[in-house]
Design brief:
Blueprint lengths: L3 E2 L8 E2 L4 E2 L6 H8 L5 E2 L11 E3 L3 H7 L2 H4 L7 H12 L4 E4 L3 H7 L4 E2 L15 H8 L3 E2 L8 E3 L4 E4 L8 H18 L1
Parallel strand pairs: 1-4, 5-6, 6-10, 7-8
Antiparallel strand pairs: 2-3, 9-10
Protein name: GAL3A protein
């Protein structure tokens, strides 16, 4: 397992204690290195031929830094290295795992694919971003409704997705869904 991140400036730096943006500037690779305890490489160096699969975590950083979904929605652009990484694994018929908001990357890069970001309606207030499913459909992809503890496998494209924090759920349910995504990616590898 190797961890990669793009060597780009973050769109925003947020004070998570207060929930507000700061004037600070940070680099995505440097911040990712903090989380990965330094064991990380620039995404530009990733070679799909050296790996059996790729998994993209989610989080608002995906929607702000790996693409411009947070600002542009379905009209977003995808970072060039993220796009080329997805294309390389897809072309090599290697599995791609995506969770939380990151399934929008596949929806943007692979028209016609199947993904999930949970439900397409705000069921019991648990899916406050349910409109993301509609945007995915508008991109020509099929959104598959799934519960937080489940994942969806697009067998034709070898794309496995789960909603994770797109659902307001207990952490153990989110953990279970991410676990099923990882297990399905490994089965396809």
């Amino acid at each position: 397992v190797k961890i990669f991140a793009p060597n780009i400036e973050q769109r925003d730096v947020v004070n998570h204690l207060e929930g507000s943006p700061t004037e600070e500037k940070r680099n995505v690779l440097v911040e990712s290195a903090r989380l990965a305890r330094g064991n990380i490489q620039d995404l530009a160096e990733l070679k799909a031929g050296e790996f059996d699969a790729v998994i993209f975590p989610g989080g608002f950083g995906v929607a702000k830094n790996l693409c411009s979904w947070a600002v542009d929605g379905k009209n977003c652009t995808v970072n060039e290295h993220v796009n080329s990484t997805l294309q390389a694994f897809h072309s090599a018929k290697k599995p791609i795992g995506l969770c939380c908001i990151s399934p929008v990357l596949a929806a943007k890069v692979f028209p016609g694919c199947e993904v999930t970001v949970g439900q397409d309606k705000n069921v019991d207030g648990r899916f406050p971003d349910a409109e993301t499913a509609s945007a995915i459909a508008e991109l020509g992809c099929k959104h598959i409704c799934k519960n937080v503890n489940e994942s969806h496998v697009d067998k034709a494209n070898k794309i496995v997705t789960t909603c994770a924090f797109m659902c307001k759920a207990p952490l153990h349910e989110i953990f279970d869904g991410i676990g099923t995504m990882v297990q399905e990616v490994l089965k396809l590898a």
